[in-house]
Amino acid sequence: MISVDLTSLWLSFKLATITVIILLIIGIPLAKWLAFSKHKSVPFVTSVVVLPLVLPPTVLGFYLLSVMRNDSWVGSLFIKLTDSQLIFSFTGLVIASVVYSLPFVVQPMVNTFNNIGEDTVKTAQSIGADKRTIFWKIILPLSKKGVISASILGFVHTLGEFGVVLMVGGNIPSQTRVVSIEIFNHVENMELQQANQLSLILLVISFAVIFWMNFNNKHSQVLV
Amino acid sequence: MKIAISSKRPYYNYQIQTADRGIVGIYGISGSGKSSLLDAIAGYQSGNQGYIEFNNKKLTGITKCSYMNQHPILFPHWSVEENLDFALTHGTQNKNNRDLLLQQLDCTKLMQMYPCQLSGGEKQRIAFVRALLQIEEGSLVMLDEPFSALDPKMRKTALDLLKQYKKTCLILLVTHEISELYRFADELIFLKEGVVSYQNNIAKAMSSNHQSLPIASKVTIEHQQLIVYAEDVSIWLKKNNESSVSYQLETCIVDIQSNAKVTIVKLQYTDNDNEQFIYARLMNNSITRLDLVIGKKVIACFKCSNFSD
């Protein structure tokens, strides 16, 4: 029987859903550009996108904290515009999650777009199709599996985020206390049963999602 | 069409001028730059220096044209029908043309199949139908070894179809089958190591003595059109009624060109007051043995299949 407060779990789901939606909106055009552009800046932008993958979450969290704190120009501008602070808020958490999960969504999409091949796109162009038609009718349908896989990866990864969340969001109940922080709190207070229940829920959900994705995508196994 | 382009990687430097209509055959060994030339014209190659002009307009970016790659690309998430309809949507032809072409190339039964279910030859035929469906008045059609996976009968059908468009558009045809270019092309471009090593109209190319082009001539004999290859022609001093050789023509030697090993003999033949030339490729010792000299009357013998133009 579950005897633990699930508020933090719902908060994590909300955070992960919003993060994935934002990542799809900015990630798809970014991945398309990285996959097909021959611009000199592509290696630089790719490195920036991939950076959160190799950077310790605390380092990333520290820099995000520096950018979003109330006395920084971003933080103070946000206060001016919304009358609320960015740091230790859900909005700040969303921004941090987007940055942190960016490579987990963009990189698989870049690989998917690369697999389509330049010649397929050029063939459509020589037939006379415009860029919009090529994107909606050819690129996106051909990369459907990759985009779904990338979204799931981004979602699951955001659910399990800890270091960045702690640095940027803090530990405010119902606002920034996501499930990973809640598990940490329970462990710290020696409430091992509650920690175990939340961990198990997260483990089962994460495994089920990844299993479903791999099951549906037999030919391109996702390695996390 | 005027082409003046160069590139360092892959290396090529093309200076070509052709008519904006007709079939231009592009020939050369593997790696001579045939596909690079078509890629450059299609706009697939970036980093070119120079310009390409077609129908008095400079081509920039990806050119709208019928371009069939060496490895034809069909959109894998669409059925054959959807692939062809995509071309119809962006062109001026209709579904009746599509159905007729599919019928002629024996592809009607493939309509609901997906590219992954097609054999190499079937893919080529579908890509060829799509290329033909894109054609409009004044189109550019580029075909890179389009029939390599087709059987001889289907190749002939496909080439006969292609020929119907040569008066309204420019067709650049890359093939390793020189006999097809001799039969169908108006002009021939020979590429070597990224440059044009030879270019001429097909009749002159056939008799050019170029080391990579077999010497041949197009002739009309008793209302039959023939391509006669010099290596298939032997010379007799008199007719032989006890031979199965179908063509034994009374000819006159008009030229003799010798090199270290072989001699090319140019023979004049008159059919219904029409003067035509046939070439014979002989060993040097045959010239002295038969005492062949300019002006001598000899019998040219060869086996040959006809073609209709």
What does this structure look like?
The complex is a heterodimer of chains A (224) and B (309). The two termini of chain A are 31 Å apart. Chain A is an all-alpha fold and 224 residues long. Helices cover 77% and strands 0% of the residues of chain A. The mean pLDDT of chain A is 89. Chain A has helices at 7-36, 42-54, 57-68, 73-82, 90-116, 118-127, 131-142, 144-159, 163-169, 179-188, 192-216. By secondary structure, chain B is of the alpha+beta class. Chain B has a six-stranded mixed sheet, with helices on both faces. In chain B, strands 13-17-14-15-16 form a five-stranded antiparallel sheet. Chain B has a four-stranded antiparallel sheet with strand order 2-1-4-5, covered by helices on one side. The chains are: A mainly alpha (224), B alpha+beta (309). Chains A and B meet through helix 6 and helix 7 of A and loops of B.
Order of helices and strands of chain B: EEEHEEEHHHEHEHEEHEEEEEEHEE
Helix content of chain A: over 70%
Proportion of residues in extended strands of chain A: under 5%
Low-confidence stretches of chain A: none
Main β-sheet description of chain A: none
Helical percentage of chain B: 10-25%
Enumerate the strands of the largest sheet of chain B in spatial order, edge to edge or round the barrel. Answer: 6-7-8-3-9-10
**Biggest β-sheet of chain B, characterized?**
6 strands, mixed
Number of strands of chain B: 18
Q: What's the average pLDDT of chain B? A: 91
Instruction: Report the order of strands and helices of chain A.
Output: HHHHHHHHHHH
**Record field, number of beta strands of chain A:** 0
Radius of gyration of chain A from CA coordinates: 20 Å
Oligomer kind: heterodimer
